[in-house]
Write a structure and sequence with these properties.
Among the domains are: 1-37 and 603-617 and 703-784, Immunoglobulins (Immunoglobulin-like, Sandwich), CATH 2.60.40; 45-62 and 469-599, Neutral Protease, domain 2 (Orthogonal Bundle); 63-121 and 129-246, Immunoglobulin-like; 625-685, no CATH class. By secondary structure, the protein is of the alpha+beta class. The chain is built from 22 helices and 33 strands.
Length: 831
Amino acid sequence: MRLGTILPAIGLAIAGFGPLSSLSAVAQDVVGSGADAFAQLGQELPTPNSYRTASGAPGHEYWQQQADYDIDARLDEDARRIDASARIVYTNNSPDALRYLWLQLDQNRFKQDSLDRRSRTVSSDRVSYRNLREHQAVSIGDYGYRNLRFSGEAGEELPFVVVDTMVRVDLPKPLASGQYISFNVEWTFDIIERDTVRSRGGYEQFYESDTQIFFLSQWFPRLAVYSDYDGWHNKAFLGSGEFTLEFGDYDVSLTVPENHVISSTGALANADDVLTEAQKERLAEAGSDKPTFIVTPEEALANEKTKATGTRTWRFEAENVRDFAWASSSKFIWDAMVHEQPGAKHERVYAMSFYPNEAERVWSKYSTQAVVHTMDVYSRFSFDYPYPTAQSVNTWEGGGMEYPMITFNGYRPDPPRANPEDPESAESRAAAELAYSRRIKYGLIGVVIHEVGHIYFPMVVNSDERQWTWMDEGLNTFLEYVAELEWEEDFPAFRRISDPLVNEINVLDMIPEYMMSPNQVPIMTQSDSVLRLGPNAYSKPAAALTVLRETVMGRELFDFAFREYAQRWQFKRPTPADFFRTMEDASGVDLDWFWRSWFYTTDYVDMAITDVRAYRLKHDDPDVDYPLDREEHLRDNPLPVNIARNQAEGIVPREERFQALKDLYSENDRYTVTNKDRNDAADKFDNLEPWEQRAFTKAIEDDNVFYFVDFENLGGVPSPLMLHIKYEDGSERDLEIPAEIWRKDAMKVTHRLIEDKPIAYISLDPRHQTADANYSNNRFPSAIHQSRLSAYKADVVKRNLMADMLHELKDSAKLDSDSGKSAPLKPANAR
């Protein structure tokens, strides 16, 4: 019963269906709704086979292909063009004979008639300046692969067919299982300006110094995947769905202007040819305590001011990687430190950063340290970092992109701003040079952690990003959150950051807004069909894994199972089923209900406490129970208002005025105890079994309070019920009720608590650890929360045409489309 607080009722009779249990759930009459929510995923997941087992591990006949590359590439800085050739050795480890090979030509996405460009949609009738610039660049430029040629080992032409961002190369004879083929490819393409057309690679133009940073990714014809579960992975690249590739060994020679410094996948194989003696010494002396400059800011500034007259070839070797990317510029500062991992294949990993002087105020302080920190944390959750280098390259304003051993990351300090009161003072200039915003600091650290984390997922644990983006972005974002909180407890991990006002919201409080929105699809949606990639592929799966680790499974079970998944599938290609099955296999926890609700539906978490009823056990002694029954009746049934007003008016009932009308019933109410009542109670106790008598007597002595708590699942996602109980004496305790409480009815349940003292209130998920969408229904009895409001004044903007016509014309000019010359701006009706 509800009276504004939880008040113990006077009596609770014992039902005749068995003993009481303080942790049992009393099921509602509604049956069946829980069966669907807790149904096993067997019918949704692919059937286990010899390639992928029911435990989630690779099977005894697991296979994957291999593609090895020897590449020679030349960067033409002035023409902004790549000219390249490669020898590719493709090994068919599948049980199938292959009549043709598919390769990816991702640069073709920038063609004017690409499938990506022709299939784009818009959400409103608007055109931005960025839209205009991108349209103009793609319309004028000749982007995509040109001069493409495939040939066999002896130089014979191999026929091929280009299908948008894919190319099919027809083989002279089927490639049998266990055999390999060696062939050659030549190509060229113009490098896109990244700020003009958003892309994962390209160049950034620094107009004041007429210099560039080139960052080349998805830049060569790459073998598409042929897998046991999908055959050829030849879906077109539409921009959002990334890729999955085959592992192989690379030997890459990159010819660039002589004043350039290169950051690349792999280890530098010809340091004597491209580094000075001082740079080689600095690299050898790099330690594990702080970064060391290999190319100093002063040397980088001198490089970019020097016009290259020749070229230099840098050579890199990479073993067992699934891709290759690189960056080249005359602007690069280069720093390095060592990440030590004793006993690993690479005990000393070089963590390195490359960035221009424009980024120096913050990059030298944080970038390489963040690279090392990422390896520290991620290796603990997975495996030793498997490569000799890990690099962070500053290539654009914000965001990032990952490739094996190299990541492209944004964020630079804002342009210096001097003190307006004394802008020329030395102190003002120094302060301006050293200043950077909170957004830049945490944005940089966060993006470096995220992108370097991707070297683990999916560059080593090689999931299919084009099909299931969440398998790399979601898992990686979850671990990014863990690493950020180990960097700094107040790190705004998974939070919106705005300067100068900071509004920090934990992801578990932020994600319900998306999960409740109509503009969403399940996490298990193919990447290119996701409506809102950010929350669907990043935030929601990361929130799900956070709930799984901190609330559903606990850290010990989760961490062991997650590490088992990473180690099982390093350098292999897992599917969602492999992840789901491994997490259950290694932990011993049935999680099918969790995968179904979080990953296969668009439901959300909203648990509510709808009612609490409190009782004490009846003594079955009428001399004790009847007076308490009377007290309870009077408490719950107040004096009728008409009787109260009669009393107030002095109306005396007739029976009081005429005593002769009174009888036994006038002096005794229904709670008067009789000897028959006493005898019936004694007979009831005597008829109990001895064990029942002992249990009942002990319960009366304990004088516990019985609480029946009603919960409703308003959002559809089953969730553990994390209760905080506050008692009337001021003490408190936490109680976790597992999600299995929803097995018989996924919508409404009642839980019974037996307490030794009265409860003041019960709150649900007070630590905000379940991603609950509405905390206003999470406390019983409810509480009024006081906050503050800001007063505001409406600012109505009105147009005064007469006054506007009298404004003087500024020096701005518009382009005269007829003459191509600048014409002065003037009112449309001016003569």
